[in-house]
Amino acid sequence: MSFGGKYAPFVIGAYAISAVMFLWMVIDTLLRARSARKTLEALEAERRGAGDAP
Amino acid sequence: MISGFANPHRFMSFSRWAAPTLALIAAALLALGLWLGLSAPPDYQQGETVRIMFVHVPAAWTAMLAYLCLGGASFASLVFRHAVADAAASAAAPLGAAFTAAALITGSLWGKPMWGTWWAWGDSRLVSVLVLFLLFVGYIALRASIEDEGKAARAAEILALVGLINLPVIKFSVDWWNTLHQGESIFRAGGPLIAPVYLIPLMLTGAGYSAAFAALWLTRTRMEVRRRRSLGLALRAAR
Fold first, then answer.
1. Beta strands in chain B (DSSP E)
2. What's chain A's average pLDDT?
3. For chain A, which terminus, N or C, has the lower number of CB atoms within 10 Å?
């Protein structure tokens, strides 16, 4: 495996930017998805507690 | 088949297993593609910088795929009023913006050693991809700037549909105008011009990026469907 020889700063920089972009997308997506699921679960539990129809 | 997902329950039960499956496929394709790409010999002209192709080109392809999905979902929402379509459109935009930003930055890192410049305003491919990034950002900003979610969605969907015209401009810019970019070398009549030693890892990473986008898109659409359901419940509770 080679990471660019004399062009290593450009090659490694491109791979690092891509990795950061992927990490941001995965972490942001999972955190938001968890928050949305928990909010919905709390509201549904509250609704059931209030005796509403499911 | 697509219209079946207009039903949020059907979409949620499909995406529950499809998103993690696509994420696993993406991880496998990316691992194999990047390993082959980093093990390939240096190009006779571009030397070691050819390795940037395995992250730059898939990012650019996926950015265009994301906009196609944004446009398609916007059309379905605007014309057929499908409940999940608008959620899917708003979920695609931040992902598309991230892939486009990655394509622009990695392209710049490839351009400096090969062309001697980070950016060229006279290059139609570079400028049309920058326009794609601004379309994604504009879509997100437009949705955020209008308080009424329904009106925000309609305005953003119209912007997304108008922006679809940019996709063929990006694709054919290297044929229509003189640019620093090489002419079409993969999806062309007569077959690809790239040697298999580069083409195979490029196709694997391209498929990996697309699968990763699909997994993240499904997950964000699920999140948006849940957010809207929560909003509905909160409004009902407030009455």
1. none
2. 88
3. C
Using DSSP, state whether B43 is helix, strand or coil. strand
Residue segments in chain B with a per-residue pLDDT below the cut of 70: 1-5
* Whole-number pLDDT of residue B179: 80
Out of A13, A29, A47, the one facing B220 most closely (by C-beta) is A29
What is the Cα Rg of chain A in Å? 22
Q: What is the pLDDT of residue A52?
A: 56
Which pairs with CB-CB distance under 8 Å and at least 24 residues apart come from B231-234?
A: B233/A40, B233/A43, B233/A44, B233/A47, B234/A43
Decide: residue B144, CB within 10 A, 0-12 exposed, 13-18 middle, 19+ buried.
exposed
C-beta separation of B70 from B160 below 8 A: yes
**Tokens at B176, concatenated:** 């229509």
Is A23's Cβ below 8 Å from some Cβ in B? no
Rounded Cα distance, B103 and B202, in Å: 14
